[in-house]
Amino acid sequence: MRKGFRSLVAGLLLAASNETATCWAAGSQQNKHQRSEALYRQRLIKQVRHQLLMLPWYSVFDNLAFQVDLDKVTLIGQVTRPVLKSDAEAAVKRIEGVATVVNKIEVLPLSPMDDQLRRAEFRAIYREPGLQRYGLGAVPSIHIIVKNGHVTLEGVVDSEMDRNVANIRANQVPNVFSVKNNLAVARSSK
């Protein structure tokens, strides 16, 4: 009788441990899948960002952004040259893992007045001693978008003060109808 009871208890313990191991393995597999999906998404975002930054006609007067949804990439922003819109789409389509590219990039209208405002805004912002460091890279971090006399500042700055100084400098340029400041302040690690 005792042997029967022991084998019954041992069988129940074995069954319970097998069930626990199966549940743990299923949970572990799900966690691994979620982690690998997150890593895949981060890798894809990094590759898309890299491809857009490497475009030869991408400048301080263009703004390219994107959204990633699984294997679909949506391109958004504004560009001064139509070739940049098509180049951006072609570059992102070549990335492994991208199945669909939706191109919602706006091509800004040709305007000699807007071109003059772009140059004047560039000088006003990047000649400011506190903002000169943002113009040192191949693609400056403060982007100046001009459409029909209206200016939008896009990009990232280090502090709220830099954001405000850029806004003040942009508003001082003559013949500008309005300035919209979309500059983001980078998170500090303090």
Mean pLDDT: 85
Shape: globular
> How many separate domains?
2
The whole-angstrom Rg is 27 Å
What proportion of the residues form beta strands (DSSP E)? 15-25%
Percent helix among the residues? 40-55%
Helix tally equals 4
CATH domain topology of the largest domain? Histidine-containing Protein, Chain: A
What is the CA–CA distance across the termini?
A: 69 Å
CATH architecture descriptor text of the largest domain: 2-Layer Sandwich
CATH class of the largest domain: Alpha Beta
Low-pLDDT parts are 8-14
Structural class: alpha/beta
Total beta strands: 7
Give the biggest sheet.
4 strands, mixed
Instruction: Name the helix and strand elements from N-terminus to C-terminus, one letter apiece.
Output: HEEHEHEEHEE
Summarize the structure in short.
The chain has helices at 2-53, 82-93, 112-126, 160-171, and strands at 63-69, 72-79, 100-107, 142-147, 150-157, 178-181, 184-185. The chain is an alpha/beta fold.
Structure description:
The chain has about 190 residues and is α/β, with parallel strands linked by helices. It folds into 2 domains: about 110 residues, Histidine-containing Protein, Chain: A; about 70 residues, 2-Layer Sandwich (Histidine-containing Protein, Chain: A). It is about 50% helix and about 25% strand. The longest helix is centred in the first third of the chain and has 52 residues. About 5% of the residues have low confidence.
